[in-house]
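Example record used in the benchmark description.
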Amino acid sequence: MSAIDASEHNSASRLGQDRFIARIADESFVFRDFPFDEREVTGGQLAERMRAHPVTDYVVLQQLETLELETLRPNEPADLAKSVRFFVIRGDAVYSFVVDGLSMVWPRKVIDGRSIKRLVDKEDDAFELLLEREDEPDLIIGDKDEVHLSDDGVEKFQTRPVKPKVTIIVEGTPHVWTKKTISYDEVVTLEVPDYPQHPEITYSVKYKNGVGERPEGVLVKGASVKVKNGMIFSVSPTGQS
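Model output (structure tokens):
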């Protein structure tokens, strides 16, 4: 269940007899559901359920419906209908950072890329994480790469969809392609770079090792086809203009 789904769950459901659910994890992101009789609980009560003793050695975090993450003091109440999930992690300080414009805190000096993506529900391979830098290109952070949050300043991250990268073969020459589809014009241009200046010349474009139930076929002008790694195209002039 994603954090957003969990938010909807907490806002709408109860465990009979007016009991409410709090989803709590440590830094491992393994969440457990704990029932409470009251809709409002304190940071100390959440720590108690995670057997975090003494509570002063732990930091309690609550993640709001916006996905922003903030600290929760032992005596501070949290509304279980408005909080997505909670973390109880050993530590005595928190370090601030920003992900996709959302304010975050974490009680460890070091955090890996996968954990950052998890906090904004983008942990799958369809997204990549970038560390914003001022005087040089943004740095791609891998899932296992570690970032030091204790460095000077507040680190800012952003996520973006991963561009698909496949290698296609056009007339024996490999080309890296980052789109899900390729058009007739694009295939021809890979083989004949000045084709855009001479669109009146026609070509026969065929492909094989393609996607789905029709791995072979003819690509006509104005049409596109889905691509996959190792797909092969042949381009030959038809002699017509």
